[in-house]
Amino acid sequence: MTKFLLSVHVIAAIVAIGPVTVAASMFPAAARRPLADAGRDLAVLRSLHRICRVYATVGVVVPVFGLATASSLGVLGDAWLITSIVLTAAAAGVLVLLVLPRQHHILASMPKPGPDGRGPARLAMYTGMFNVLWAVVTVLMIVRPGSTTGV
Amino acid sequence: MDSLRALRIAAGTELATLVVLLVNLATVHWPAVSSAVGPTHGCAYLFVVILTVRQTRTPRTRATAVVPGIGGLLVLRRLTRVPRGGQPVRRAGSPGSAGSGR
């Protein structure tokens, strides 16, 4: 059963976090680009934001099945796992509290291009933070420092 | 998929998986069933809560989403019957879709 839970966990991580990473990384660049064809560029931005929002919700599957996997493996108390959980919570916080609202804000002010270029730059920084956080979590999941199981 | 439809699916799954879990607990008690359906129920529950928070600002409806098992169905009932302002609702867009879940 652990194999099933772990499979769901990994597939969900790939399917949900992957699109968020790509779309969120593309968003600031797309927002900074001067609006050549306003309607089309706005539609692109909207889609990118929608991808981030929808797949962030789907991403809930990842920690739920991750916890189930960990509990069936009996590793819930391990330091590497607790660290990962904390980092994942931080990544989720960055995504939900910083990245998504700022994307929404930029989109809302979009038809007239913002006077300062600060918004997209900030957003790019937070998106980078999110990406680094979950990349660290992924490495922790593979290396599992101090664990005696495999790899 | 619009979020009301997603909410409908999540609400149905939430109740269905809970029923499966309880039936399993009361009868055969297969560990495989509980460990596969348990997290599914957890996900459905969280989806209901997230989708509800996104759908409405009313504190009561949001609080309803947290009710275990039937929270999603209660939210759907509130959303489709008692909209803010009390106007008649989005029913028109989804005829015959009242039977969410079981």
Outline the structure in words:
The complex is a heterodimer of chains A (151) and B (102). Helices cover 80% and strands 0% of the residues of chain A. Chain A contains five helices and no strands. Chain A has helices at 2-32, 38-58, 61-73, 79-108, 118-143. In chain A, helix 1 packs antiparallel against helix 2, helix 1 runs antiparallel to helix 5 (118-143) and helix 4 (79-108) runs antiparallel to helix 5. Chain A is elongated. Chain A starts with a helix and ends in an 8-residue tail after the last helix. Chain B has 102 residues and is mostly helical. The model of chain B is unreliable at 91-102 (pLDDT under 50). Classes of the chains: A mainly alpha (151), B mainly alpha (102). Chains A and B meet through helix 1 and helix 3 of A and helix 2 of B.
Could you give the topology of this structure?
The complex is a heterodimer of chains A (151) and B (102).
Chain A lengths: L1 H31 L5 H21 L2 H13 L5 H30 L9 H26 L8
Chain B lengths: L2 H24 L4 H25 L3 H7 L5 H11 L21
Concise description?
The complex is a heterodimer of chains A (151) and B (102). With 151 residues, chain A is mainly α.
Task: List its salient traits.
heterodimer, A: 151 residues, mainly alpha, 0% strand, elongated, B: 102 residues, disordered C terminus
Q: Give the DSSP E fraction of chain B (strand runs of 2 or more residues).
A: under 5%
* Largest sheet properties of chain B: none
Low-confidence stretches of chain A: none
How far is the first residue's CA from the last residue's CA of chain A?
A: 20 Å
